[in-house]
């Protein structure tokens, strides 16, 4: 079972883990494959394509095979094309796609990542035979010079600043530890370390064999209107490289969670580490499709079925949300539907090939939309049911686990599955989803709205008042003067009615729903509260949960919530805020606690206005680091009255800060805490001013 596959000099090397280390096997004969099907043409067109493709030197062989081009299609004659190299697959498929009349040919199994493709086509499982060993490489890229290495640690050990000492030290630690996985702060760090060695003529070996590859260049992308940046990806022979600046699953889970997804998706660990949630979900779907003899379309194209104006209006809605009752509520209970969207898919057989099927066109199975759902089992429920059941089983094991290591492993596996389940619904409406369909997305939302409304009605009939509800969660508090049913009994009743388990998620001593800044209407996703029976608070949407909030501001806000919990007094909260402001204005806060992190959406010279992010990008450019669109940058605001690059300082050069800028941020954070009890920013500022005046008067009198 190879956990890593290297492509070197036209050959493939499989790396497998054993109790004694790692072993390798060279595979010289491997021909990746894609398929060609006939669109609007006929079998003669397919024969023409075969005769033409066989003339290409990059085509190893061709033959005809029977495959299904879709889940609701019977097997058809398709042309299998075995290519001489991985790189030839996309080039040949692009040529076929553009050859002939528009739509005449369709290509399948084209855009698979290369390690994933190899495992699929060779029938290899990339699940490691044992838990891989890891070694961290920590430091900042962009700071290398010929005469000096920036502060760098390998496996927690400092390697020195002199290249003559640092480079051999890096190799010594790698040889001694022989890790299976390198976890680097960034792939760029490894690349610059290697470049330094090359400039100095030192043959640095980071892998189990000589060599260093760049697998992909850095790139910028746009997703749902947000600009993102994908760093360059690198490879070293025999070891997995996990880039901390470009990994979702490793950061959100752990090694155990990643390996769980390796087994489910068939994507080897290195590819899984940089893959998106949708990428991994697609891999799971691809394996399911191929197990059913269904080919994977390269360029997905699905037309929408005709909809009436009423259907268009009703379908173009998301999950249901109740306007929160802004303010502080006592004795609140939060109830959540367990994995609502995945369970809707499984319970109601929602799948791209089952929604609005022709065989049940006269039925109206989807509430409010009138769509039919086929009785024949869809592929998507079969994909998700094992994930839902396994996560429920893992959560049950977590409740019983006493061993910390075992619990950490289970938490990682549970989190990994959770993210796949979270994304499975939205991915159905994604235009580039291999097997998605917008009507499937609409049907899931329609079921979710009906379920939440029915749950609200049942809870209110049972003597509870709903203070907020959003998509799959609902918050209730006891109604005064009425007889109440137990929440456990009501949850069981709702579960039986919907077929989806309603769980008691949390009990709060109190919850504060934050109003919008410009009105008294509650903000949909901003609240905080004190969990009953625990010295713990839950925060959602407020500043301490926002990634751009400086650590100092986030810490102060959490302290303000604790003060509110203890005293239930706006004045006490303001007094605590005043002490933080005094410390801030005295210059006693470490600038590293005031770092603002923002993502640049374009290059510095493309902005029309001089923002703080632009100033930070310009300063980074001065140090030789050009910021690409989508990349994040951290800075400290030094003087916000300026509009030049002197407005900010990069983290490495910050020694002072603009106290009033951060004081303003503290006031906003304090308003989020106190607005549920009616204190707005002006009230907070007035109280602080009065306290300051009183203190000065007392000082003068003495």
Automatic annotation (TrEMBL):
SUPFAM superfamilies: DNA/RNA polymerases. Residues 287-675 form the DNA-directed DNA polymerase family B multifunctional domain. Keywords: DNA-binding, DNA-directed DNA polymerase, Nucleotidyltransferase, Transferase. Its EC number is 2.7.7.7. It catalyses: DNA(n) + a 2'-deoxyribonucleoside 5'-triphosphate = DNA(n+1) + diphosphate. GO terms for molecular function: DNA binding; DNA-directed DNA polymerase activity. InterPro entries: DNA-dir_DNA_pol_B, DNA-dir_DNA_pol_B_multi_dom, DNA/RNA_pol_sf, DNA_pol_B_thumb, DNA_pol_palm_dom_sf, DNA_pol_type-B. Belongs to the DNA polymerase type-B family. This is DNA-directed DNA polymerase. It comes from Halorussus aquaticus. The lineage of its organism: Archaea, Methanobacteriati, Methanobacteriota, Stenosarchaea group, Halobacteria.
């Amino acid at each position: 079972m190879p956990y890593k596959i290297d492509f070197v000099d036209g050959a493939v090397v499989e790396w497998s883990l054993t109790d004694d280390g790692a072993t390798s096997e060279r595979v010289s004969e491997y021909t990746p494959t894609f398929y060609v099907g006939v669109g609007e043409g006929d079998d003669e067109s397919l024969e023409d394509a075969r005769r033409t493709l066989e003339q290409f030197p990059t085509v190893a062989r061709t033959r005809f095979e029977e495959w299904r081009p879709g889940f609701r299609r019977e097997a058809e004659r398709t042309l299998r094309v075995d290519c001489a190299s991985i790189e030839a697959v996309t080039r040949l498929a692009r040529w076929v796609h553009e050859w002939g009349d528009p739509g005449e040919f369709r290509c399948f199994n084209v855009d698979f990542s290369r390690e994933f493709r190899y495992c699929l086509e060779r029938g290899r499982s990339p699940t490691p035979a044992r838990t891989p060993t890891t070694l961290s490489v920590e430091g900042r890229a962009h700071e290398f010079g010929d005469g000096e290495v920036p502060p760098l640690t390998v496996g927690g050990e400092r390697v020195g600043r002199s290249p003559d000492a640092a480079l051999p030290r890096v190799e010594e630690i790698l040889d001694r530890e022989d890790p299976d996985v390198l976890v680097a702060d960034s792939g760029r760090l490894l690349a610059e370390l290697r470049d330094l060695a090359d400039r100095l003529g030192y043959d640095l070996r980071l892998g189990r064999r000589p060599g260093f590859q760049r697998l992909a260049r850095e790139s910028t992308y746009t997703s749902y209107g947000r600009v993102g940046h994908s760093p360059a990806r690198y490879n070293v022979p025999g070891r997995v490289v996990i880039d901390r600046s470009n990994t979702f699953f490793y950061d959100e889970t752990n090694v155990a969670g990643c390996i769980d997804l390796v087994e489910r998706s068939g994507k080897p660990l290195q590819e899984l580490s940089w893959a998106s949630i949708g990428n991994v979900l697609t891999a799971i779907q691809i394996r399911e499709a191929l197990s059913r003899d269904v080919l994977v379309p390269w360029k997905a194209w699905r037309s929408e079925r005709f909809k009436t104006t009423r259907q268009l209006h009703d379908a173009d809605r998301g999950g249901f949300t109740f306007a929160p009752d802004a303010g502080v509520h006592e004795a609140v209970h939060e109830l959540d539907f367990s994995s609502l969207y995945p369970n809707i898919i499984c319970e109601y057989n929602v799948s791209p090939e089952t929604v609005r099927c022709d065989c049940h066109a006269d039925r109206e199975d989807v509430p409010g939309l009138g769509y039919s759902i086929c009785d024949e089992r869809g592929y998507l429920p079969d994909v998700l049911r094992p994930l839902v059941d396994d996560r429920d089983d893992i959560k049950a094991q977590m409740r019983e686990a006493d061993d910390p290591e075992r619990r950490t492993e289970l938490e990682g596996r549970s989190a990994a599955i959770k993210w796949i389940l979270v994304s499975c619904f939205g991915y159905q409406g994604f235009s580039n989803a291999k097997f998605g369909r917008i009507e499937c997305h609409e049907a899931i939302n329609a079921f979710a709205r009906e379920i939440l409304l029915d749950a609200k009605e049942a809870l209110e009939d049972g003597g509870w008042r709903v203070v907020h509800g959003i998509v799959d969660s609902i918050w209730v508090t006891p109604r005064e003067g009425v007889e109440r049913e137990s929440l456990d009994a009501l949850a069981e009743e709702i579960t039986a009615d919907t077929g989806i388990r309603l769980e008691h998620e949390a009990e709060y001593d109190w919850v504060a729903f934050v109003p919008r800044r410009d009105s008294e209407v509650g903000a949909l996703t901003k609240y905080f509260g004190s969990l009953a029976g625990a010295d713990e608070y839950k925060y959602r949407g407020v500043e301490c949960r926002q990634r751009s909030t400086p650590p100092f501001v986030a810490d102060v806000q959490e302290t303000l919530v604790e003060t509110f919990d203890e005293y239930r007094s706006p004045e006490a909260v303001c007094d605590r805020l005043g002490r933080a402001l005094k410390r801030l204005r005295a210059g006693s806060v470490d600038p590293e606690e005031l770092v603002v992190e923002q993502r640049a959406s374009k290059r510095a010279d493309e902005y029309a206005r001089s923002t703080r992010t632009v100033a930070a990008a310009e300063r980074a450019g001065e140090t030789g680091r050009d910021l690409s669109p989508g990349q994040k940058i951290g800075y400290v605001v030094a003087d916000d009255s300026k509009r030049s690059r002197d407005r900010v300082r990069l983290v490495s050069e910050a020694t002072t800060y603009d106290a009033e800028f951060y004081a303003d941020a503290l006031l906003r954070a304090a308003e989020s805490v106190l607005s549920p009890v009616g204190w707005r920013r002006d009230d907070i500022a007035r109280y602080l001013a009065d306290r300051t005046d009183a203190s000065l008067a007392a000082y003068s009198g003495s």
